[in-house]
Write a structure and sequence with these properties.
Blueprint (H helix, E strand, L loop, with lengths): L1 H20 L4 H7 L18 H8 L3 H10 L15 H11 L2
Bound molecules: heme C.
The site of heme C has 26 residues, from α4 and α5.
């Protein structure tokens, strides 16, 4: 009985580990950071879901977009107010907000 409990606890721990390192939830990142500007507050910032505004941006390619977010782009500040976002996080958020 005790052994089974221990075993299932360690299985749970193993399952939980990779989740802690996985990319952040794009919607949460958007709501916490990008959404401060990309929700219509700044006319220059392409809005979430505004596919026409995103089309020419996406045409530059994902790597260019990630670079622009990381380094800043005109009035968008470097890292877009997400200090702990990785390049993969930015990719996921850009995919999420451009559709
Ligand atoms: C302080 C306001 C602000 C925040 C916060 C912000 N942005 Fe932006 N973003 C802008 C503005 C303004 C532009 C348009 C800049 C331009 O085209 O001159 C822009 C443009 C972009 C572009 C297009 C870049 C290009 O090359 O066309 C991407 C992608 C982008 N933002 C992603 C993000 C992501 C992802 C976040 C959150 C992690 C974020 N932004 C947070 C203001 C912001």
């Amino acid at each position: 009985m005790k052994k089974t409990l221990l075993l299932s606890l360690s299985v749970l721990a193993i399952l939980a580990l990779p989740a802690a390192h996985a990319a952040q939830d794009p919607e949460a990142v958007f709501n916490r950071a990008c959404g401060n500007c990309h929700n219509g507050q700044l006319p220059q910032a392409p809005k979430k879901g505004d596919q026409a505004a995103w089309k020419p941006r996406l045409a530059q390619g994902e790597d260019v977009l990630v670079k622009h977010v990381t380094e800043g782009f005109n009035i968008m500040p470097p890292r877009g107010m997400c200090t702990d976002c990785s390049a993969d996080d930015y990719k996921a958020v850009i995919r999420w907000m451009s559709h």
